[in-house]
Design a protein that fits this description.
Blueprint (H helix, E strand, L loop, with lengths): L3 H4 L8 H16 L6 H8 L3 H7 L3 H11 L14 H10 L7 H14 L3 H29 L8 H5 L1 H13 L5 H17 L5
Helix pairs in contact: 2-3, 2-5, 2-7, 5-8, 6-11, 10-11
């Protein structure tokens, strides 16, 4: 839970706050988290550092606020297409999904810092990941209710398999996250695994 001091930070007037957040996302995508500084964001946003510090007390606070609210990184809408396959495609290939350029470039800029910066990790998990994980749980819970997932399947493990495979391809193998790759993982990994022992 955020502290009272964080919840009641003074907002930046007018559209300046959005401009600063957009500039922050662009700097993260370009430089990564480690090389990002308040100076760099202030320069990109044509704002003063004092303005930034009045609203965001730390770099982690600014960056997570920015990526959580950025135009290119929206939380995918909760859709119910009537099938697990349809839900996963809608969630993964639309705005804010794996194939959107900005989310993947932003995550690439953060990934090296997440495992060694506790403040960034906590803020990222609570404010960026949490709503996306909640949506994923709903998708898989509906699939369970529809009988699309066999009783012997580890649903918790299955629900993180698609992003794990996509992230591995993008950041380890250097394979871009395309709609075709997402469909291949869904059709060749997720759906067969969802059938569990019924598939044999």
């Amino acid at each position: 839970m955020e502290s009272a001091s964080v919840r009641h930070r003074p907002r930046v007037e007018g559209g300046r706050e959005e401009e600063i957040l957009d500039a922050t996302v662009a700097v993260v995508a370009e430089l990564g988290y480690d090389r990002l500084t308040m100076d760099a964001v202030a320069t990109a946003a044509k704002a003063s550092k004092a303005t930034l510090y009045r609203r965001w007390t730390t770099k982690a606070d600014l960056v997570v606020d920015a990526i959580s609210r950025a135009k290119g990184c929206p939380v995918p809408e909760d859709v119910d297409t009537g099938s697990l396959r349809g839900d996963l495609i809608s969630m993964s290939c639309g705005d804010g999904g794996f194939t959107a350029e900005m989310p993947m470039s932003v995550i690439a800029g953060l990934v090296t810092a997440l495992h060694r910066d506790p403040e960034l990790q906590t803020a990222f998990q609570e404010r960026f990941l949490a709503p996306r994980l909640d949506l994923t749980r709903k998708v898989y819970q509906r699939a369970v209710a529809r009988g699309e997932i066999a009783p012997d399947v580890d649903v918790e493990l299955l629900s993180v398999t698609l992003p794990a495979v996509i992230v591995h391809h993008a950041y380890i193998l250097g394979v871009p996250a395309t709609d075709d790759l997402v469909l291949r993982v869904i059709d060749n990994v997720i759906l067969p695994a969802a059938r569990g022992s019924q598939a044999s």
